[in-house]
Design a protein that fits this description.
The structure holds three protein chains of three kinds.
Chain A (H helix, E strand, L loop, with lengths): L2 E2 L8 E10 L2 E7 L3 H7 L4 E4 L6 E3 L11 E4 L6 E5 L9 E5 L25 H5 L6 H13 L14 E13 L3 H12 L4 E4 L9 H4 L2 E2 L2 E2 H13 L4 E4 L2 E7 L3 E7 L12 E13 L3 E3 L12 E3 H11 L1 E2 L4 E5 L5 H9 L7 E3 L8 H8 L4 E3 L1 E8 L3 E8 L8 E4 L2 E5 L2 E3 L2 H5 L4 E4 L4 E4 L14 E3 L9 H18 L33 H4 L3 E3 L4 E2 H9 L5 H8 L12 H12 L3 H4 L13 H5 L16 H5 L3 E6 L2 E7 L6 H14 L1 E5 L4 E6 L3 H8 L12 E7 L5 E11 L2 E6 L4 H14 L7 E4 L4 E7 L3 H8 L14 E6 L2 E6 L8 E7 L3 H12 L4 E3 L2 H10 L40 H4 L4 E8 L10 E7 L5 E13 L4 E9 L8 E5 L5 E7 L14
Parallel strand pairs in A: 2-8, 9-10, 9-16, 10-13, 16-30, 18-26, 20-21, 20-26, 21-22, 35-45
Antiparallel strand pairs in A: 1-19, 2-3, 4-5, 6-7, 6-8, 11-12, 14-15, 15-16, 17-27, 23-24, 24-25, 28-29, 31-32, 33-34, 35-41, 36-39, 36-40, 37-38, 38-39, 41-44, 42-43, 43-44, 46-49, 46-51, 47-48, 48-49, 50-51
Chain B lengths: L2 E3 L6 E3 L4 E5 L11 H8 L8 E7 L7 E7 L5 E6 L7 H10 L3 H7 L1
Antiparallel strand pairs in B: 1-2, 3-4, 4-5, 5-6
Chain C lengths: L11 E2 L5 E5 L2 E8 L4 H11 L9 E4 L2 E7 L2 E7 L3 H11 L5 E5 L4 E7 L3 H6 L16 E6 L2 E9 L2 E7 L3 H11 L10
Antiparallel strand pairs in C: 1-2, 2-8, 3-6, 3-7, 4-5, 5-6, 8-11, 9-10, 10-11
Helix pairs in contact in C: 1-2
The chains are: A alpha+beta, B alpha+beta, C alpha+beta.
Chain lengths: 1005, 110, 189
């Protein structure tokens, strides 16, 4: 069994007990524990079930590489699935539950899949779910949906907050082991601005566990001293619980800081995403131990040798009473020695190598009386939910059992792989290191930055240097290199510390154990524990032609689980190389992509959630709108009132009421969102003649003109009323969504094409609150306000004037988008609400009501006015809409003119705008297509047009619509069919698009 | 994420302050141009694997346009320069030639 | 005429690691012109009441000041009540120059973040190096705050003043307060 020993762990504080629950069971650990160490201390080796076969799964590792120990963590607004037990710090009241089993972890019905394993080989998704086709919707899809995912999806809204932090530095060091600490110190002493990130809550990495002597002192002391030095340096920032998640272009890197995961009720943001821009990055990310591939290597109790050591030394937890060690290298002997020294039993060390002599750790282990079997291997592991023993065979053979040894844990080591992820994220290449049987950074092909120079350097084990002394020297040298790149200088007396060297025998690569393992053994030999990929699956993939490592990965799902193959990738590709009879470097690795370890989506979103998910733009009258029944609709980032509802009336009824009231009495529209651009300069007229299809240079001061804007492609992009302010100044109104884009459009032409033209543009959209006062009583209302003359004589249709109304300084435009007598009045935004209030007050007796955008739409559609985005969709030219009158024929050039001369644009067969009147008075469905004769080559009915705007007109008490119809203007009176999605076919007559007051008598009064 | 220098205001900042606007140095063809000229102006764009001249705007900054010469493959930035030019200035071409000898010939060949 | 009201009527929140306050109304004039033209600079200095700032800097004195916005744009600041008068004075000084001067006082919102953590609050929202060695009082930076355009400067070592568009005032106030939330000190600067 696994248990807590009397010997104290380095990291736990046994004076501070912490209680937590696992699957509802109350358990106890100590401050400093991870959830993994606390579970093991409570003999909870079984922590989950694998994805495909629902095999029992135990903890394999002690760090972020852990593939099995994934739990549902927390509850309600703090519930989160797939949390790794090895990277979860224990806290009082922690609640964890195991995943992917039913009804319980101990007894899981899904485990029947393991008996179906021969039906679930590599690529089973592709093979299984193809036929019969009819099974997909009702059989396969529900099954897949049922079994998809490991943890449960959260049901409640996340109650925590998250944030970003932009940091800039000369040197970012990722990894707080001895290499990272040393690199940070060296860089810091040279005067660089340094940030050092460590993913765990403690410094030193694994060196203190593995032991050694640096500059005459034990590693722990070295870490303590160097930390004190770094902490005293103003130019160095130290951060624990912050993982270097990814390295990106031009020195950009992400740090993922977990602020309150270990103390969820402390308040403050939960995670902070550090968005770091570093001139140079040093990755001191260490190395990860590889499992060995032998039958039964997934049975709970089989663990990485170094992790067994970590649990023992850091947390005072033994994973078993009798631990068999199996290895191909010297380093793993540290585990056997540590176990023995802790008074635990190590019945045998199975070393796949045959060494000429016993040196270093091998000799030490033997001296401790541990039985060492050289050239031997595990044939298979015995046990179900827990290891009960191993059978021993010769590594050279096919697995014939020589002996059976009882044990309750197996510590395995297949060598070490440098964590090259961050080096590789931004293009750093790898080379195969034959001596250590691993991929390590190819220093000749580093990631390159904006200046084309290398910006990432590895340090320590991440470079593929493993001996303590080499690690420290490599880290110091890495920092020295970086300092040189930064044009900084190291004080002369700074040298790398020196560590005592251990005598070591070389590793022997072992990719299959035993070497000639039979098919039966290979079928029980796991590569990817989480996704259930076995040696046999990879070999099958190779057999079926998936020879590229990227294809084999996707076909078998090897390395595609949440651990992204930290343990399985190298063994997997070595297996693939073996099956293909190729060298490992020629097979290559799959692509390393950020993040290194899963980070929360919320951290990526940062502050952007709930009410600040996106900016909401508010007019000066927004608050009034909100408290007066407005139902808002988004128009870009603006929120405009769609209609103002009164009491219990429906939205539709509110819209109908607003239309009638505006036509019969007086309505107010908050038109503040309309874009307003000032265009000024000696060349402003010439410039606007290029921007608009019409002539704007001839517009008289004091007058307004409706204008159209097209892109160079000829298509309509915006429209609005332009007013001539003075000799060299115009004010251009744009659509609500157009202010920023049209401003940018104008500036782009001025800055990149006609930079010698003397024109300045300023966006004054938000300087003004603009109110449209519309309806037969509009003038009366303004006269009641008092001030400037707003009579027909003083201010005729399409005039504008500056003045005062009711004491408000304002600019009044006599323009109409409704067909009624109408004034659009702009006042400074700071007075917008007061002006609106004044209008509501004087309008009270005149029947004033505010109206929203839907009413605006109906009013304009009754008049046959087009709306950008309804009648236009980026493929419509003004000619399609019958707007020839707004296209100057006198101008030699304007944006879009040349495009509109293209054959397709002048094609008489283009769909053209007409009005549509349903035969029975009903309302046409929006976007419905017009049915033509016959069918196309696909057997579909031919379409001859579509509805662009459609409303119920309360003025006419019938449905009215506009549409783009093939030869539309020539079809007046013709009845066309429009099939709806409701199954009904609507019939509508082609009519003139102006339904109301064709002669404009109402607006021109 | 790219780090970009704006030659107008002198700020070097991350990509989120900027907006890319496609190929630089397009020659405008208006009324009177042939269909081929107009087609090439409106639609034909280079898509080099290597040196590229682009138009950028310091959108969340000084608001000005400028040009960037960079490598689309390595993302190396050779230079930022004024948008008020019809062609890359000689000093920019010299920088590129120095770092990518013969780049122009390669491009012409493709 | 009514009393001018700012977008958030002077809202303030001091519950977090820094105090966030809406200021204003503040008089603001956008002046565009060739900044190499002496007449433009003279007019700007007269309207702003301060000496001409360097590129990417601002010069302020109380509510008056000039901020360098771009190679052909300045922002002139003044007390709100004086903006119309200062604007009216400009055309006479610019008769010979091609220039554009408009009142943008109401198009903007102005915020202040104060306290020892003011730099950190900004560094959570703007992609700008807020390190005291790098961003110093007197500098003027146009950038983005979370998802909207903004500009800011530091009148002193513990105060940041921010200008954004009026329509997004609430958004900016809300994100500043989120960034300034209790227990969110970074301890970086």
């Amino acid at each position: 069994m696994s248990t807590r020993l009397a010997t104290k762990g380095r990291l736990v504080d046994t004076s501070k007990p912490v209680s937590f629950t696992f699957n509802g069971k109350k358990l106890r650990g100590y401050a400093g524990d991870t959830l993994a160490s606390a579970l093991l201390a409570n003999d909870q080796m079984l922590v989950g079930r694998s994805f495909k076969y629902h095999r029992p799964r135990g903890i394999v590792a002690a760090g972020p590489e852990e593939p099995n120990g994934l739990v549902n963590l927390g509850r309600d607004g703090r519930f989160e699935p797939n949390q790794r037990v090895t990277t979860t710090e224990l806290f009082e009241g922690l609640e964890a539950a195991s995943q992917n089993h039913w009804p319980s972890l101990e007894f899981d019905v899904g485990a029947i899949n393991k008996h179906l394993s021969r039906f679930l080989p590599a690529g089973f998704y592709y093979k299984m779910f193809m036929y019969p086709r009819s099974f997909w919707k009702h059989v396969y899809e529900p099954i897949i949906r049922q079994s998809a995912g490991l943890g449960k999806a959260p049901k409640d809204r996340d109650v925590d907050t998250y944030e970003h932090f932009y940091a800039f530095c000369d040197v970012l060091v990722v990894g707080g082991g001895v290499a990272g600490l040393q690199a940070a110190l060296t860089a810091g002493l040279a005067g660089a601005r340094v940030i050092l990130l460590e993913q765990t809550d403690h410094w030193g990495g694994r060196a203190p566990v593995d032991g050694g002597v640096i500059d005459g002192a034990p590693v722990d002391k070295f870490v303590e001293d160097i930390l004190a030095k770094l902490e005293s340096m103003e130019n160095v920032t130290l951060r624990t619980r912050t993982m270097g998640a990814g390295v990106y272009d031009h020195g950009y890197a992400l740090g993922y800081e977990r602020l309150t995961d270990h103390a969820p009720h402390e308040g403050g943001p939960r995670h902070r995403l550090w968005r770091i821009r570093a001139a140079q990055i040093i990755t001191a990310t260490g190395a990860i131990e590889r499992p060995l591939s032998f039958a039964g290597n997934d049975i709970p109790g089989v663990m990485l040798a170094a992790s067994v050591r970590d649990f023992l030394i850091n947390y005072g937890v033994s994973v078993g009473d009798r631990t068999v060690l199996v290895t191909n290298n010297d380093n793993a002997y540290l585990t056997a020695i540590a176990l023995k020294n802790a008074g635990l039993d190590v019945p045998v060390i199975l070393d796949a190598r045959v060494l000429p002599e016993d040196r270093g750790l091998v000799a030490q282990a033997k001296a401790l009386g541990i039985r060492v079997m050289m050239g031997h291997a595990i044939s298979s592991v015995k046990g179900g939910k827990r290891v009960t023993g191993v059978t021993v065979c010769s590594q050279a053979g096919e697995g014939a059992v020589l002996e059976e040894i009882a044990c309750d844990a197996v510590a395995m080591s297949g060598g070490w792989s440098p964590v090259v992820h961050l080096w590789s994220h931004c293009g750093g290449k790898l080379r195969w290191d034959t001596a250590h049987a691993c991929f390590s950074p190819d220093v000749d092909n580093p990631p390159k930055g904006a200046d084309g120079m290398a910006f990432v350097t590895t340090a320590g084990a991440a470079s593929g240097t493993f001996a303590l002394d080499d690690v420290l020297h490599d880290a110091h040298a890495a920092a020295e290199g970086v300092i040189t790149c930064l044009d900084l200088k190291l004080p002369k007396d700074v040298v790398a510390p020196i560590a005592e060297r251990r005598e070591e025998s070389p590793l022997a690569p072992v990719w299959m154990m035993p070497h000639g393992a039979s098919a039966k053994l290979r079928e029980k030999t796991w590569l990817d524990y989480q996704n259930d990929v076995k040696v046999s699956d990879v070999r099958l993939a190779a057999q079926e032609g998936f020879v590229s490592v990227e294809h084999a990965k996707r076909y078998t799902t090897l390395g595609m689980a949440t651990d992204q193959g930290k343990l399985s990738n190298i063994n997997g590709l070595a297996t693939l190389a073996g099956a293909l009879d190729a060298e490992i470097p020629t097979v290559g690795t799959t692509t390393f992509r950020p993040p290194y370890h899963p980070i929360s989506l919320s951290a990526i979103a940062g502050e952007a959630k709930n009410h600040v998910f996106q900016p909401i733009r508010r007019t000066p009258i927004h608050d009034w709108n909100e408290s007066n029944g407005a139902e808002f609709e988004p128009v870009g980032q603006w929120r405009r009132p769609y209609a103002y509802k009164r009491g219990s009336e429906s939205t539709h009824d509110a819209v109908m009421r607003e239309v009638k009231n505006t036509r019969e009495r007086i309505g107010l529209l908050d038109a503040s969102t309309l874009g307003k651009l000032i265009v000024k300069g000696p060349d402003a007229g010439k410039f606007l003649d290029m921007m608009y299809t019409n002539m704007m240079s001839t517009l008289k001061i004091g007058k307004c003109r409706y204008g159209l804007m097209c892109s160079e492609n000829g298509f309509l992009i915006d429209d609005g009323v332009v007013a001539r302010i003075d000799e060299d100044t115009w004010l251009c109104h744009t659509t609500t969504g157009g202010a920023e884009t049209i401003h940018a459009h104008m500036e782009e032409w001025l800055q990149t094409e006609w930079w010698d033209w003397k024109v300045y543009v300023a966006n004054v959209t938000e300087q003004y609150a603009q109110v449209a006062v519309v309806g037969p009583n509009a003038r009366k209302a303004l006269e009641k306000l008092g001030g400037m003359d707003v009579s027909k004589e003083a201010l005729a249709f399409m005039d504008w004037a500056d003045g005062e109304l009711g004491g408000f300084k304002c600019r009044v435009y006599r323009i109409s988008f409704s067909g009624e007598l109408s004034y659009e009045i702009a006042v400074d935004a700071s007075h917008g609400q007061a002006f609106w209030d004044a209008l509501m007050a004087v309008g009270a007796d005149l029947g004033v009501m505010p109206y929203g955008t839907e009413c605006l739409h109906i009013l304009r559609a009754e008049k046959g006015f087009i709306m950008m985005g309804d009648e236009t969709d980026g493929t419509v030219i003004p000619q399609d809409l019958g707007l020839h009158w707004a296209i100057s024929k006198k101008k030699e050039d304007f944006l879009g003119k040349r495009a509109q001369e293209r054959s397709h644009m002048t094609d008489p067969n283009r769909w053209k705008l007409v009005g549509l009147e349903t035969v029975d008075g009903s309302t046409l469905p929006d976007g419905a297509y017009a049915l033509g004769e016959g069918t196309n080559e696909n057997g579909q009915k031919n379409m001859i047009g579509r509805v662009t705007s459609t409303y119920h007109s309360p003025t006419l008490d019938r449905g009215i619509a506009m549409g783009l119809i093939h030869n539309g203007p020539d079809r007046m009176g013709e009845v066309i069919k429009f099939p709806g999605t409701d199954g009904k076919v609507y019939e509508a007559k082609v009519v003139d698009a102006v339904f109301y007051d064709k002669d404009g008598e109402k607006q021109n009064v | 994420m790219l780090n970009i220098h704006c030659p107008n205001c002198g700020i070097t900042a991350e990509e989120t302050e900027f907006h890319a606007h496609g190929e630089a140095h397009l020659k405008r063809f208006g009324p009177g141009s042939s269909d081929d000229q107009f087609e090439s102006y409106l639609f034909m764009r280079k898509n080099p694997k290597g040196v590229h001249f682009e138009r950028w705007r310091h959108q969340n900054g000084c608001g000005k346009w400028f040009h960037v010469a960079r490598c689309t493959m390595t993302l190396e930035v050779f230079a930022s320069y004024s948008a008020q030019t019809y062609a890359p200035p000689q000093e920019v071409l010299d920088i590129i030639e120095n770092k990518r000898p013969g780049w122009n010939a390669q491009e012409d060949a493709t | 005429m009514s009393e001018p009201v700012t977008a958030l009527r002077g809202a303030s929140d001091a519950t977090g690691i820094a105090t966030v306050t809406e200021l204003g109304p503040l008089g603001m004039i956008t002046l565009r012109g060739d900044l190499g033209d002496k007449a433009i600079i003279k007019a700007a200095v007269a309207a702003g009441g301060v000496t001409m700032p360097e590129v990417r800097h601002c010069a302020t004195e109380g509510e008056s000041g000039i901020a360098w916005m771009s190679p052909d744009e300045l922002l002139i600041m003044s007390p709100y009540s004086e903006v119309h008068a200062r604007l009216a004075d400009l055309p006479d000084k610019l008769t010979k120059s091609h220039a554009l001067a408009v009142n943008v006082s109401d198009a903007r919102a102005v915020f202040q973040v104060t306290g020892p953590n003011a730099r950190e609050v900004m560094a959570k929202l703007a992609p700008v190096d807020m390190h005291p060695d790098h961003f110093t009082p007197g500098m003027f930076r146009r950038t983005r705050i979370a998802q909207v355009a903004a500009a800011f400067w530091m009148p002193d070592a513990e105060t940041v003043q921010i200008i954004c568009f009026r329509s997004v005032a609430k958004y900016v106030f809300d994100v500043l307060n989120m960034a300034a939330q209790d227990r969110s000190e970074v301890g970086y600067f």
